[in-house]
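Researcher: I'd like a structural prediction for the single chain below. Treat it as a standalone chain; there are no partners to consider.
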Amino acid sequence: MTLRNSLLTAAVLAAAFAFPAMAQAPQGGDTGGGIVRVPKPVTGEQVYQSVCQACHMADAKGGTGAGTIPALAKNPRLAGAAYPIMMVTQGKGAMPGFSQTLTNAQMANAITYVRTHFGNAYAKPVTEAQVAAMARPPSDGGH
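Model: Treating it as a single chain, here is the predicted structure.
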């Protein structure tokens, strides 16, 4: 067998083993290295479920334990958009600010979702522009 034939045979064998593995890789799922890519939350409900409900609970009634997590359900402080925007973007106390980790759209969608669910009836949507006006810009330098 010549060198050229050996290289051709090796290439064919490599392709034969690679194609089944490529065919089994799920789209947008497991990357093959044990890392699973999860779609970014977009809707207010998705953001609430993936970010907020860990502390504020699925029913938005908050909780107590090592600290007190305020209820968002039937919360009159949500009537004006400025208060929840400030809390979500900048944080306060144990509540972290999310302007560095969520987009303005994600924050606006989550705030609107909370203001229109869980016994709240504040129907006017929060906009990205309102969130952007109150979000802290990314810090210069950083780590």
